[in-house]
Specification:
With 175 residues, the protein is mainly α. It is 81% helix and 0% strand. The chain has six helices and no strands.
């Protein structure tokens, strides 16, 4: 029995020292792992945030390019008729969107949905405005009607999308 007590006198302090050392080493390693993860996230943010901001810039530029007056002045030619202008406007909008499709990787779903809705609404307004017109009339007839149609709207589709993009970008910068 005394031998067992002598063994316990040696083993118990050794176990206490072992578990204390184990706990201290684990704590140290966990803190180091967390520090490495924070450094990685900070480095990742420093690389990704500029890309995301560039995507917001490009998409806001896209929405500005799809502003009705700018779009019409960029696409319309003097010898066009209504059908040709309608086709050119819709084709230009779709081409601009296709050129910027990859930017959806960097923006949130809400902003991308607002942008897509804006594009589709703009195309719908163009098609609805052109539908009752004679396809062979001069393009200036459609251009005037489109400008009136868009001017009568309180919230232009591209303005709604721009606001959604700005709001999301501002949230990104508040991190």
């Amino acid at each position: 029995m005394s031998e067992l007590i002598e063994i316990l006198k040696i083993v118990l302090p050794a176990l206490l020292v072992f578990f204390t050392a184990y706990w201290l080493i684990q704590s140290f390693l966990n803190e180091e792992r967390e520090k490495r993860e924070q450094k990685f996230l900070l480095r990742k943010d420093n690389q990704i945030i500029p890309l995301r901001l560039q995507a917001y810039e490009r998409l806001i530029l896209l929405m500005e390019r799809l502003e009705p007056a700018a779009l019409i002045s960029r696409v319309r030619q003097e010898d066009m008729n209504v059908a040709e202008l309608q086709w050119a406007l819709v084709t230009s909008i779709r081409a601009e969107l296709e050129h910027n499709l990859s930017q959806q990787l960097y923006v949130g779903d809400a902003a991308w949905i607002a942008l897509r809705s804006s594009v589709e609404e703009t195309i719908s307004i163009i098609n609805a405005t052109a539908a009752p017109l004679n396809a062979e009339d001069n393009a200036s007839v459609l251009a005037k009607k489109l400008l009136l149609s868009f001017n009568n709207q309180n919230n232009l589709p591209n303005r709604v999308a721009i606001l959604a993009l700005k709001k999301e970008a501002a949230g990104l910068l508040q991190i």
